[in-house]
Amino acid sequence: MLRLLLRTLVSSCLPLLALGQTFSLSDLQWTLKNENGSIVVPGSLPSQAHLDLYRAGVINNPLLGINEYTERWVINDNWTYTADLSPFTQDYKKDASEKTLLVFYGIDTIANITFAGHPVAWVNNQFRQYVYDVSDFLASPGSDNNLTVTLESAWYYGLNVTEMPYAEYFPDTANVTTVDNFEYPNVRQWIRKIDDDFGWDWGPAFVPSGIFKPAYLVTLSESASESESSATPAPGVPPSSSSIFVDETSIDIYKYGQNSSAAPDQTADWVVNVTFGLRSVASYEHPAVTLSIPELKLTSQPLPLEAIPASVDEATFMSVTWTVPDSIPERWYPYDLGTPKLYNLTISLDPSGQGKNNEVISQTITTGFRTIQLLQTPYSSEEVAARGITPGDQWHFAINGKAFFSKGTNIIPFDPFYPRINPDAVRWVLESAVLSGQNMLRVWGGGIYQPSDAATAGGVYDFYALCDELGIMAWSELIFSDSLYPINDFLLESVEPEVRQNVRRVNRHPSNVQWAGGNEIEGMVMSVNTSLANGTHYLDEFVYLFQDYLHDIVLSETRSVPYTDCSTTHGVLSLDPYVLRFANGTEGYIYGNTERYNYDGTQAFNLSTYPVSRFVNEFGFHSMPSFYTWEEVLENPEDFAFNSTVVMSRDHHNPAGNLSWPNPNAPQGQYQMTSAVELWLPTPGTSDANQTFAQWCWSTQVFQSMNMVAEIAWYRRGAGMGENNLGSLVWQLNDIWQGVSWAAIEYSGRWKVLQYGMATVYSPVIINSFWMPENETLTILATSDRWETVDGTAQLTWYDWSGNMLNTSKTNFAIPTLNNSLIYEGTGFDSILPSGYNATDVWLLMNVTAEADGKTVTSEQYFTPESLAYANLVDPEIAVTATDDYTFTLSAKGGVAVWAWLDHPYGTVGYFVDPATQFPTNGFYLIPGIDRTVQFLLNPAVSAVQNPATSDFVVRSVWNNTHI
């Protein structure tokens, strides 16, 4: 046994875990084959079939060209992963007390597991971890000595399920949709798998399969040596001792007496609740747990735990609580409102309760202290009267008892193939969110439960731990999206452990601020309820699943995080009991939150079409990726055109709804982008085809940014209006591939124009114009999201397109908490525009300078009284000088360079900053006589090119839409 243990440690590079043996299944030699055996290639773990086929040269890079289409055959086959267990079993000698557990942290998705010739289990849920006792199979091997995972095509499995007698029929009619379908329709509501694997309007449909997270064999024994040290797991290794495997560890920190329906007492003591899921080969009558936070010099007394039974078939769950005085720990805050303070909590589980080192299992977990509320109760009559709030219910968050404005975006999966997600790339995306002023990310409910970190539960990469560290709040969702869901035991028996496992795992993270039951389903079921004769049936199913079932599961596992039924919701009638409002509202009152999508370019800046809401959790407009990103996947010169077959095949908006290729509805999405550009910018068209394509790609991004910045400004304005809007989350932050999408950051990590636009409009203090064309009224407001009154100065300067200053004015302001200050209001072009000038000849530069959080904050925006498509622009004649440290000085020698923009070269990832302030800046109006200096900060961790030439940087402006 000792020889086996030492060999295992050498092969897997894992440290000794007392007498418990942990063997990584990644160290086995895996083989992948298809159902008829015609394809046999080396496999790996963690992996998916596409990735191993690509490594073996059977298929090309799935993201290249039209491979999403040509490689569909992979989806239609069944794939088997097999590994010889001899490296584990050749020295295996089982004693009577020994147990070996087979631990999978993620199987995608429908699989039969066979161990040493014996059937182990059939699994059907990508979001669960599975643990099986395989001791008897090791003692009596069957027909082979292999571990085999046979994966069924999720697509064909889904089709088969829909033919079962229990498969509920979900009708779609011209007036109502019960499921949003993409390439592979009508199956995903039956499969606990990433929804967008079957396609979405911003991504591909690869429907992957595989053992996509790490897996282990853990051997336990009652035998123990007094000389063994306590078991402290290495990163990524499941925690165990000689006799106990820790299946799960959950940490829930909340205020004494706190619950989901009442505001926490901010002066009450903290309760640290630690819950274990344990599998043990021995029984222990008097186990104890000691908790300590070294930074605070706090250590608990040994806290008694319930007796641990000798059982490995199912995890036994038990908890301890520890009280920490309110005054001792600093609180965790999002980075823009305070310090994201974290502490290392050491948890020592002593099964015997006698302090024997050979049995103690120690874990050190980073966590934090904070309260988070989702306020959904009615505004009081006093608030309505005193603050001018429109009657109705609140819908916003409060951190540590204080309401704030949520500024952020939505995230989708980082790659179509989970095992190859690059941790450095994820860190870059999250750091980019901070750099652009975001404090909240919504983890969209059609993707995957994001991991805690690479080391926990086979996470592969960091997510919530990064959010904790960086000070970003995460709005989390259970994986239900854009579909009605069947209610039957077959679904629910799989969903309950899925939800419990993921809630328990995420509990430790102070960055997590809520659990939503799903995405966009409440509105769907409300439509069904009124449109179908049996609509009440589907409404009742929704109420059962999202109001009752999931609500009760989530809140039974956490007291620190609120639950809401859906990402877009009408709110609640009551929190205790939890009863949804649906259409039960009062005319003129405001409830819940909302979203906005309007693809009519003529309405892009029509303020009357923007929601007046308490919180806007989704809004967006799609754009092309950059020319450089297209270079990653386009293979032929003729592909580099806006409406080439390959480019259009990567526009999945509107979705095909079937396997037609290229997407027959792509022209709709392409038209929405092109028509918007034609309405608001000079139409790209030059004598150079690549130049024209590059300008088209970039111009769709300029429009996207203009549109989103206008909306964000409107929603931030709402914090000081009757709606008391306290949230705007743009759809979306990141990309899953190189294609048309709503993202602000491209698949490679390259920032789009929108990412820089958000950096300006998500600044703590901003200035923006609000134009009402129907009565030619211009209102300019300075807006602050600070908790204290902010003093500052606004400057308004009119220019013509040649860069001549026509007039300027300054206004001092004081902005109350989460509010606005009026800078200017005028009606009619005769009074608004500089005397003697037409709307096509002038533009307004708006600057704000303020003191906030002990530092100077600046921001600028632009108002053009006429569309730039009709403005009398002048050749800017941009001159650029560069230094070796990638500092560029831009000068306009002719006229104003509208949306002056610097592109960094192919293969580089980074962003441009103002060297003086280190604030992100790109895509600005460059005025003759007022040079702009920017510096490119390269991220070496995610850049393929480490030392780009300054000559490879490209300068463009909207003038280049029609001029080389």
Q: What brief labels describe this structure?
A:
28% strand; alpha+beta; hydrolase; six-stranded antiparallel β-sheet; single chain; Glycoside hydrolase family 2 protein; disordered N terminus; six-stranded parallel β-sheet; 964 residues
Summarize the structure.
The protein has 964 residues and is α+β, with helices and mostly antiparallel strands. It has 19 helices and 45 strands.
State the secondary-structure class: alpha+beta
Low-pLDDT parts are 1-19, 225-230
Q: Indicate the percent of residues in helices.
A: 10-25%
Please count the helical segments.
Answer: 19
Shape: globular
Q: Determine the strand fraction and express it as a percent band.
A: 25-35%
Distance between the termini: 74 Å
Number of strands: 45
Rg (CA only): 29 Å
Q: What integer is the average pLDDT?
A: 94
The profile of the biggest β sheet is: 6 strands, antiparallel
Keywords: Hydrolase
Protein name: Glycoside hydrolase family 2 protein
